[in-house]
Design goal:
single chain, two-stranded antiparallel ribbon, 5-stranded parallel β-sheet, globular, alpha/beta, about 30% helix
Amino acid sequence: MIRFDVLTLFPDMFSAVLGDSIIKKAEEKGLVSFNFIDIRDYTKNKHRKVDDYPYSGGGGMLMAAQPIYDAYQSIVAELDYKPLTIYMSPQGKVFNQKMAVDLSKYEHIVILCGHYEGVDQRVLDMIVDMEISIGDFVLTGGEIPAMAIIDSICRMIPGVLASESSYENESHFSGLLEY
């Protein structure tokens, strides 16, 4: 089984995509589990504000370190290990099928979905192990990319698809395109 904890400002976005079809069946079988954590629940600001000016100045706003760090601590405080922590970032390594296969071997993955101009670098330095991008374009946030990689990873977990041949013969699995 693989556990996904997703740190996001928009947890409700995930149920429409991951709460249906093959991924929902995998969750019902106990092959995957999901926990969508609203970062706003961890802000110390009475207005649930999660953005801040860049520490070094400059234009735009960043996601503040404190609520992200506290939301992350809500996951890891009871663990005796550090889960693989991924930040969805346009600057990250571009996701591909080999990464999906490799990531499917982890038992616990935390995914941080960024917004605004990004995330305060200090929190990234403290908690993130890997930055992943889904391509050379910009979206409004990390939720859609997170859903795409979760879906791709889940397909590689034994028992999620009807048989291993269901994904072994697909495009990109062995580096070639399907017929």
